[in-house]
Amino acid sequence: MSQDLHAQTLTQLAVGLERGDFSSVELTEALLDRVAAHDQSLNAFVTVTADAARAAAKRADAARAAGDIGVLNGLPLVHKDIFCTKSVLTTCGSRMLENFVSPYDATVVERLANAGAVVLGKTNMDEFAMGSSNETSYFGPVRNPWNPDCSPGGSSGGSAAAVAARLAPAATGTDTGGSIRQPAALTGTVGLKPTYGRVSRYGMIAFASSLDQAGVITRSSEDAALLLGVMAGFDERDSTSIDHPVPDYTAALSGSLKGLRVGVVRQHFDEGLDEQCAAAVRESLAVLESQGAILTDVDLPNLDLSVPTYYVVAPAECSSNLSRFDGVRYGHRAKDPDDLFDLYCRSRGEGFGAEVKRRIMTGTYVLSAGYYDAYYLKAQQVRQLIAEDFRTAFADVDVIAGPTSPTPAFKLGDKIDDPITMYLNDIYTIGANLAGLPGMSTPCGFVDGLPVGLHLVGPHWGEETILRCAHHYEQLSNWHQACPEDYE
Amino acid sequence: MSSSWEVVIGLEVHAQLATRSKIFSGASTAYGAEPNTQACLVDLGYPGVLPVLNEEVVRMATKFGLAVNATIARRSVFARKNYFYPDLPKGYQISQYELPIVEHGELFIIDADGNDKRIGITRAHLEEDAGKSIHEGLAKSSGIDLNRAGTPLLEIVSEPDLRSAKEAVAYMRKIHALVRYLGISDGNMQEGSFRCDANVSVRPRGQEELGTRSELKNLNSFRFVEKAINFEIERQIELIEDGGEVVQETRLYDSDKDETRSMRSKEEANDYRYFPDPDLLPVEIDAAFVDAVRETLPELPDAKQQRFIKEYGLRVDDADILTNSRALADYFEAVVAATQGKTQGVANFVIGDLLGALNRDGFDIEQSPVTASDLAGLLDRIKDNTISGKIAKEVFDAMWAGEGTADDIIEARGLRQITDSSAIESVIDQVIAANPGQVAEYKAGKDKLIGFFVGQVMKETGGKANPGQVNKILKEKLS
Q1: Mind telling me the catalytic residues of A?
Q2: Residue among A104, A323, A326 whose CB faces B82 most closely
Q3: In degrees, to the nearest 5, what angle opens at C-alpha B332 toward C-alphas B331 and B334?
Q4: Which CATH class is domain A7-258?
Q5: Which residues make beta-bridge pairs with A48?
Q6: What domains lie within chain B, and their CATH numbers?
Q7: What CA–CA distance (Å, rounded) separates A229 from A463?
Q8: ipTM reported for the complex, 2 dp
Q9: Tens digits of per-residue pLDDT, B438-460?
Q10: Ordered alpha helix ranges (H), B192-342
Q11: Which of A449, B131, B170, B235 is 20 to 30 A from A171, comparing alpha carbons?
């Protein structure tokens, strides 16, 4: 029976381990075998940590025998390669950090390890999380398990592909403008981005500090709830993490949807959204309604400003955050520099890819004297308006539902040379980042054999509500159980 | 200097705050460690690390703000100042820009005419220091020591209210004394804990518009501040009088050559692209916090000086010297409290003998080998006529050398003053008998010779005769 361990969700595996149906070592070996068999084509991993995983699995089995275990004891998962991990490469998908080994573990890594999780490896991603297709990775694009010619989305594309292809039951990810939710939608997985400040950013290599938030990609909302409970909570090493009680997310899954006010954003169904995707999302809304949820139209009048706002704020922060990669202390360093200036220019010129450079330049520009007020300051003001729109909407509804992404997975190469079209991929997800709200995507159907995601956004600290909503939907729809043919 | 020119100076003083750990990390701030041994991952700007504000710096900045009668911002914001330099690990310095923690303060200096002059303090903001580049001893490369990176600084910016190098120094000294009083900085200039930049410009007297300024960087002694500013004033005036124009630029003072030279012009200046640091929350301060900090304020230098004048009847100059540091003032007051001697006498001894010895041996008052109670013991012996003021100096030197208390030394060396009138009389009789010529001259009206007779008597008694008694008896016998 161990040959279908990969088909089980994290929650199911937890039960199996507890019952003694299999050991963590067996489970880990089974998954490592799958990684070895499939990752050549998928390219979801940057680093496979087979030996460390085996050792951790052994420890987990011993701990279980001794009766001293955390909630994730022996459960395998993978980390997006943006989380710093001691003694394992942390590349952030960049040549800049091709050989970088962090001297410390990120808080997320530490918390999951303390709960007993077994890490199978580090997943591929858009370089420094800048991208929506995984094509900006220095280590090459990840392929979508549903169609190898398609992108799995990004930037957490490796995490999403690994979970969709059943190489790992769960993965961590980060979401700055949709980087968890969009790849989840494009790979038929569940992706959760918590409230800003819910999960510590310590040890997560910063892209845009005021937008970045760590989350998970799983195969069910139940699994997402389980992991979030471990990852969430105040961390004194991150001043922007918030000391807010961590509820029992798993317990919050039950309870009915009766009377749940679900806001449907009119603008979401305007032009730009693929018609078949729209139909799938509308159908899923009808399912929620059948369970007693009340659908209400809501208005987000400034929605069309979210992408331009994001593409001022995020590059501004990234231009500063990435200054530390200067070839002086760690990371890529140009050979035989003539002088300091040459060292900087060539180290950064060689170390960063085109999209990262584009954003650093945009960010540098919008923060420059004479442009700051017109761009950065204005964007911050618009950001307040967008946040205000959500506040107003959440006065009347408990959840806002809509499409995660305007189209299903697109072909690799289709959008990479057209940044504006690429950026529009995140039009539905970016608002939650700008407003710091929790959002998630759960599978809601297929278009031409490619998955479509239902996007749920909650008010601040509304993780329980969106998880409950998604969980109920999953019980009725089963889209989340669909598995790409080649990976059954 | 041509008096048709008016000098305008503003100072930016950087005071290192005396916290144990850095402003945004737990690494130690201790000075003098091996390079890069006191820099943690946050200070090194590693990927993924985040700054966490050391709350102690907020308390210290608030203390300073209250001491200069400033507004303490209810909400201040850390911003990033972006520029590339190898000793700046993150590629930006975390500082405060638009919303500093302290604004609109003031302090008073004494100007050339001896009057109080108000100097406005525009703002004081918190920031982190950068590391240090090391060029010596390394061929073809530079070393970086990041021990200093992340050290907390309070940058105190004055209004352009200073009108001479002397005023600038007086202001800087005042700030220096103040931060040490408050216990928020050790003010150690050799170690770079206290340094300043000076913005200097000149304009024709009577002109309202300010002249173009140059910024003199990194002046780390009072003497350099004065010399650099004076050099710069002359340079600017000469330049203008020769038909040239001052350009806005940053200049570096070279103390070896006693000159300033251009570092970079305005055109070359960095665009720092300041923006609020998204890794740090705004610093919110409520009234209760400010009140609690106010409770911890010590008596400040100006108030202490006034009290010394009033309470101890000291001269202004003496009170000024004695209140220059809190430790010295405390020492003085401890001596006053423990001795029967007059306060002006205590002041004279502390300023003359004690400070002299401290300066000679390069000690701080805290390191004085003669404690306040030891000194009180010595002054008591003057007061009760056991020894004379002159002998006291000898005793003090012995105390300084560690030979014991005043009483021990007086006893051991047999320095007890002769106060027995008959003993003194007999010496005086001998002196009179031995110097008939001088006696005749004295009696003929040469009063000054009394000094000669006193001197002879003191010589005979090894300085131990009570001078008052000697004078009195001599005068009687010679009349």
Answers
A1: 80, 155, 179
A2: A323
A3: 65
A4: alpha beta
A5: A121
A6: 5-292 (no CATH), 299-413 (no CATH), 421-478 (1.10.10.410)
A7: 11
A8: 0.96
A9: 888 888 888 888 889 888 888 88
A10: 222-241, 287-295, 301-312, 316-322, 326-338
A11: A449
